[in-house]
């Protein structure tokens, strides 16, 4: 479903991504993890069509992403640095999305807004950071996307809201075969929901594997089994090796 081959991106002499490769299967939840500055957001912005690759391929469903309106209309994207038009209420944002996305579901939007306890008539610019993130997630999920891109989606959310959101995402993956890519620092949460993980370091893919297979392959490195994603991440980063070394 998502295929990235040889992706390279340079910003003012800095190589943010270097020959980066990633593959995300349809109907899966993929966790992209790495320290700050590793390149996670840069990868996601290429998939969202925000950045154009210097070289390499970035495709969804076999089609190049950049400047592709059809692919973008079937892709939900929640970025870490949210921005909303200050005069828009959540209701008016819903109406705007309904015009932009052919898959928009007013019923799903209303359900999610009620689930999160958001005031649909209030200006989103006056929401707290956590409430703005909830609003962005509700809008993205209500477009009924084939692909959902989430960059640090749970920052500022309380545990109850996080569980509700992830339960909804898991249901959509099961029911509609939605494909999800999540970038997050919360490895314990990722450990519980991801099928596959990609560990990125200095703009390069360090490890890409199904999570259960990775835990099985790495178990001899730890005194107890199975190791957590947290432990595997720290081990690989500190030892600067891939799981195949």
Number of DSSP-assigned strands: 10
Distance between the termini: 28 Å
What would you report as the Rg, rounded to the nearest angstrom? 18 Å
Order of helices and strands: EEEHEEHEHHHEHEHEEHH
Helix- and strand-based class? alpha/beta
Question: What does this protein look like?
Answer:
The protein is an alpha/beta fold and 245 residues long. 38% of the residues lie in helices and 25% in strands. It is globular. The chain starts with a strand and ends in a 6-residue tail after the last helix. The mean pLDDT is 92.
Write the SSE topology.
Layout (H helix, E strand, L loop, with lengths): L1 E10 L2 E11 L4 E5 L6 H8 L7 E6 L2 E2 L4 H5 L1 E4 L11 H11 L5 H11 L12 H14 L4 E5 L7 H18 L2 E5 L3 H7 L2 E6 L2 E7 H8 L10 H11 L6
Parallel strand pairs: 3-8, 3-9, 6-7, 7-8
Antiparallel strand pairs: 1-2, 1-4, 4-5, 9-10
Helix pairs in contact: 4-5
Brief digest:
The chain has 245 residues and is of the alpha/beta class. The chain is built from nine helices and ten strands.
Which key features would you list for this structure?
globular; four-stranded antiparallel β-sheet; six-stranded mixed β-sheet; 10 strands; alpha/beta
